Structure formats: C-alpha cells, structure tokens
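ok so heres the complex, two chains, lmk if somethin looks off
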Amino acid sequence: MEQSRKKFLKHFLIGAVSAPVILEACKKTDTTSSASGSGSSSGSGSGSSSGSGTCSVSPTETAGPFPTITPSSLVRSDIRDDRTGVALTVKITVRNTNNNCAALAGAIVDIWHCDKDGYYSEYGGTSMQSVNYTAVHFLRGRQTTDSNGLVTFTSIFPGWYSGRATHIHVHIYNASGNSLLVTQIAFPEGSSNAVTVVNGSGGVAYGYTKGMTGYTYNASDNIFSDDTTGTELATVSGSLSGGYTLTHTINVAA
Amino acid sequence: MSKKIIRLCYRKVIDASSQKVWDQYIFDSTYTEFLMQSQFYNQEKKFTTFAEILHNVPAAERLHFLVSAAITGYLQQLNGIVPDILNNLGKHFLFFKNYRFEVINSDIKNKASHQVAINFFSEPLLWQDTINGFLLVSPVGAAQTEDGVRTDLVQLQPFLSIYSLKTAEG
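and the predicted structre for the whole thing:
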C-alpha cells in the first residue's frame, strides 16, 4: 500500500503541480502510516480527505490490532487437521554422522504425506484459500529434535496413489534452516504388515477403500527400489483399533 | 435495474520497503520460509532467484502454497478485516475470509529482492451505485433499517479491484 501510494503520489506530482494542499494531505498519509505499526494510525488528520477525490482519506480509528510474531503454522506435532483415518504416531530420530552418529538435537524436521485417499494438501482448483479453513496445510508439520534427536508427530496412516509405495516425505534442516537431507520413509510389506492390513478389508471402516490392487511395492517403487539395505525402511507396529507407531532413524551429516 | 453482487480483491504487496510492523513480520517470516522450502526444489543450489527456480523446476510453483504456511497466524491476527482499505470516513470496513498468497520475487542471496503479495477477497457486497470514482456498497444481507440499508463509500484505487460479479436475484 505504501508503495502504491508512493507511485500514485509520484504520478500525481507530475500531473498536478498546482495543488499543494492536496499534496500535503497525501504526504500526511504517508508519514502517519509509516509511523504506526498496525495500519490503524490514530489521530491523523481530520479532514485530510480532499474534496477532489484523487487522494484517499487517512485512517482515523483507534490503533490496533497489534501484531505479534507468530511461528509458521507448520510448527506443530498434531498434523491431522480435518483428515481422518487409522491413527499413526511418527517417531523420527536424527543422528549426526559427523559426530559418531550421536543424537542430533535442535535439527528442524519437516514431514508431509498424503491422506487416506492419496491426496496432498496444496492449492486446489479454486484460487482462494479460506482463513477459517485452517486445515489448508493438512498432513504437513515441523518439529525440532530434542536432546535425544527425537521428533514425534501425531498423524494418520498414509493412503497410497498410483505409481508409488506408501511413504512419508522428510526434509531435515539444521537449526539455521539450512537443508541437511531430503529423504522419504518406506513402510514394511507383507500380509501381516500395516500397509496390507490398513488397505485390507479391516481398513474400509476407517475409509481406506482402495485395496491393494494396483499398489506399487517397494521393490518396484522408483524411489525405494535401490534401497537394498533397507535404510529408508521404517519399523511399524500396532493395530487398526489401537493405531500404529512408526519409528525410524535418519542419519545426516551436520 | 438489477443489483450486482461483487467481491473486491485487494492485492497487498509487501517488500523490503514496507513500513508497517505487520507487513515487516510478513516479509521476514515469508523470506525465512522461502529460504527453507525452496531448498527442496534447488537441492544443488544451482539457482538463486525464485524466477530461476520456477523456470527450471516447474514443480516449484508449489512454493506459493508452501510458503503461505508462514502467514496463517498473521492473517488470523487481522480478525477478518482487510487491512489498508478504508471507507471514505477513514475506517476499515472490508471483511474477508478468503485470501491467496503469492511469492512475486525472491532471491536466496538477497533478502532485499524478496517481494510477496496477499490477495484479500472481500465478503460479498451489494454494489448499489457509483459516485464520482467511489463505489457505494453494502454488505450482502445487511439489515434494513428505517432509513434503508447501511452503506459504505470506497474509492477506486490502485491494487483494489472487483474480483467477481453476479446479478442479485429478485
């Protein structure tokens, strides 16, 4: 707005040299708005609205609201928002290969994954987001590792989509926000394992309706197929009714 | 004559020259978030500007959405009131629930070139008349009083536009 006003003013300066009173009013607008914090400067000029209609009125309201520094809405442990499904607790431990694989405290861990139907949160077809619809960044979260290198997220068991095995994306940063590693977590397979159970008949009641027909297994997945030693493979335990817990350790060079 | 229902869009551009505290918080927090999130699309650090990243990695289009997480809390602090736009009495009068955030420009090596925009879409308004460069509007569903419906005069100005238009029924 400042900028637009300045441009506007500049324009105006060229066009109307003979209107000092109006110019003064516009200047007043500029200085008062830069002096105020919140965009509601008070006590600025009564009557700075000119009769010409080329210059806007100044704010004449009680000051406020007063902004406060707020972290990114990604910073949270419970990343479910409005998404439903089988409960999943995600426990990721980060270790530092530059320090004998000791736990890395203070690392920032971003995770994101798809919902039970295989969809990620992103800008949809509509060009508007709603400020009330706070679920806009569902199933995305950010935590900082504790002294044991651990972060914990409360989420739901990811569904799957064509071409990919079930997975969770992870981006690990150092405390300054510099990227250390971008990776993905794979899930164990087999008839008794969570992926099969959740996507089987028992999972239907929780909304997992795709079954396993057309599922891409880790061996065919273009991300996980080269992970022959299973370093990207998590441990998953639990049950449909009690929820599952995923534990995984990721080594970074910090 | 049939009445028209409009939604106004105010495109608030925020950059290094922005003076207000709220704007500066937006500037700082979105730059920090951009630095973090853009690394996913620029893992070899080959590019420095948002334009370069976008040109070479089309999926970086998601950065508009991803970086918008940084402003959610600040938007909530506005209590649903569109900033900056005043009626001709000098009061904020426009309400919003919807917005869209954009990264316009940025540079991982130069914070001064970071520039973002928040598009505020107003709640629907009845466009009653146009008077000498001012729109005469009233909130849709505003109560009728003895004197009729309460109205606001808002000046046509840069970065304020009519976003959508439909004809009111009845």
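quick notes: The two ends of chain A are 42 Å apart (CA to CA). thats all i got rn
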